[in-house]
Fold this protein.
Amino acid sequence: MRLSEHRYKTISSIAGPLLRVRDIFNARTGEVVTIVTPDEKKLDGEVLEIVEDTVLIQVFAETRGLDIEKSTVIFTDRFRDALLSPDIIGRIFNGSFKPIDDLPMFAPEKKSPITGFAINPAARAKPEEFIETGISVIDGLNTLVKGQKLPVFSCSGLPSKEVVASILKNSRLVSSPDEPSGNRTTSESKEFIIVFSALGLTFRDYSYYLSVLKNMKSRFIAFVNMADEPAIERILTPRFALTTAEYLAFEKGMDVLVVITDMTNYCDALREISTAREELPGRRGYPGFMYSDLASLYERAGRIRGIKGSLTMIPVVTMPEDDITHPIPDLTGYITEGQIVLSRELHQKGIFPPIDVLPSLSRLMQKGIGAGHTREDHRKVAHGLYKYYAKGRDLRKLESIIGKEGMPQKDRVLLDFAEEFEQEFIHQGLSRRSVNETLDRGISLMKQFNLNL
């Protein structure tokens, strides 16, 4: 360990957010640096790479106009940490973990590196407890479970912002899961916290989310990176959010839901950095290390055996060109445990949330439903609704060829059921439904069309 800071005025080149500094002695990869301009302005940076006596530094600010000859680079001999305390709850920070809610900085209880600590696979506990989002399609058919990673796949122009807001406002822990139908309550205690990480927001979107957060009774922590801020800061924002979530979940015993929007902006920032470093591009120009980088974020979710808390994650991915095989959703799908897919067709019908049931999937759903979790008949109701809706959707192709009048009565019933299912079950506007209301509505729909469970 060095005993003091080292200062250099040997910047050799600038390429976008990257600096190269020569004649460096005793630097370390990941070390935090400070760049001081001639007018005493300070910029944060981090050591990315060391080749002999030349160091590559990633600057978390705009480098345009930086004076190469007169600027000073200070190597601080420390790594980037998050300052943590229970007082962080109810606060809003920017992507560099600085308060933007006009409140003073809290007194930290501890520091923790934002890279986090890998969870030992042998110590992982099985995700098996239900989180109620208030959205019928998710709670009833694609159930979210504590410790799960369940992404939302959206497309340009679809209301992913409103879906995220609904999840932020309405997500709850279900208390007393063994209570009879109609008697169950939901918990809004401090044991359940939502960590919201927003990447590349416009001012309009920020105002929208800010109004949502203000109505959440301090059940949240927010990290916001704006679109006009350095793209490089988008690499830090989700890491600060996840480090905070790990602290609350695994040290304070809370159940934490992390919502990150939008991972496409994060991956675009990765591509920008990779291009500046002149690395060989992978698919669609994205860096070859993107899979491992995304995994370093997603795999921080989970539960640890013997520890009360949990970390659940909902990342939002806007699929470029509506292409689910694009590298960002494709790699996300490999790492996570399912997906919630928004549908342009349902959106055009005026249905909200426009979640397409058939390609959506929660791979851990079966662990978190049934007696002791939601309701004993949950599995049977979900299977019935999915089966009949899938058949009705498939019959729409035949209807377009021969017309509804030329189809057998049982097929017409399924067509009518599919239409009613979209209007009465999927569509719920901005209202919140409990899991009991969701299942009761599903049973009522099947009885209406004389369909058996």
Notes: The chain has three domains: 6-78, 82-367, 378-448.
